[in-house]
Amino acid sequence: MRNLLRDIESLPRWLKAAVAAGLVLLIAALGRIMPDQFSLSVFYVLPVALAGWWGGLRLGYVIAVLAAVAWFQGGQWSAQLYEREWIRYWNGFSPFLLFVIVLHLVDLLHQRLEWERARAERDGLTGLLNLSTFMLQAEEEIARARRFGRPFAVAFMDLDNFKEVNDTQGHVAGNAVLRTVAATLQRVVREADVIARAGGDEFVVLLVEAEPQGAVAVVEAMRDELLRAMAELNCAVTFSIGLVVFKTPPVDTRSMVQLADKLMYDVKRSGKNAIRHAVFEAAL
Q1: What integer pLDDT is reported at residue 16 of this predicted model?
Q2: Can you name the residues that pair with 158 across neighbouring β-strands?
Q3: Which site from 11, 100, 160, 189 is most exposed, i.e. has the minimal number of CB atoms within 10 Å?
Q4: Is the distance from CB of 29 to CB of 53 less than 8 angstroms?
Q5: CA 64/CA 49 separation, integer angstroms
Q6: 246: closest CA among 275, 208, 193, 202?
């Protein structure tokens, strides 16, 4: 069921609109072959709710109008005698009000779930992905590398002297440094690349479809920009970075990150503020 819902979410917007409209027409067709006393109006709520979930309020209103017209044309509203003619039309219009209420409730629920999902996937301070979400996306990149044979790279970065910033200037200054690092990384790397805060003062970057020479150039440019940003903050933080280019995919995401992490610690032990890189190419 989860895979089915994910497949539906990935459909083009126009196709999801067509599915919702098709459900309205199907319910209307069924209503015409049912006895006059049998109403299917409640079932119109389903395509309206689906349209609101899939396409937001705009698509939801379109389907709500279509559902109201289909119900109105069904004839149940005109089967009774009324003391006032306007009551007939009110009864014809009231399902649309129900559809609108359902639509807005669905939209509020969808917004809330999206907010909760974003909160679960991202670091609250920097807005970057958290490590667990990074690992899920890295699994997809490893799968693509196995399928198409495309290399990728992972850079693991630690902020040198960050503890001194917290100790001497306070956590507000430390948080400002972390947010600046995050914003700089987002500005420097490509949109397709994946950035995460691995925890504390550590960050990890996945460079998709990256050859060794290109990956090294990107990480060097990234470090230069970060050092420039720290100078603007009048901050003595520097960056120790381990970079691994995977010409063949690793066994799993854990070993992938561990290889880059080990190189980063080699930099820390040998004096900090540098990049150490390696190429991973397992025998096939």
Answers
A1: 82
A2: 202, 240
A3: 11
A4: no
A5: 9
A6: 208
- pLDDT score at 185: 95
Question: Environment class of residue 178 by beta-carbon count within 10 Å: exposed (0-12), middle (13-18) or buried (19+)?
Answer: buried
What confidence score (pLDDT) does residue 5 get? 53
Q: Strand, helix or coil at 156? A: strand
Give which of 28, 5, 26 is closest to 16, Cα–Cα.
5
Q: Which residues participate in catalysis according to the annotation?
A: 201
Beta strands in 109-236 (DSSP E): 129-130, 152-160, 194-199, 202-207
Domains of the chain, residue spans: 2-121, 129-280
Tokens of 34: 């049912």
Distance in angstroms (rounded) separating the CA atoms of residues 49 and 105? 9
The CATH class that applies to domain 129-280 reads alpha beta
pLDDT at 83: 64
- 13-33 and 45-74 helices, crossing angle to 10°: 40
Contact assessment for residue 223 and residue 230, using Cβ atoms and an 8 Å cutoff: no
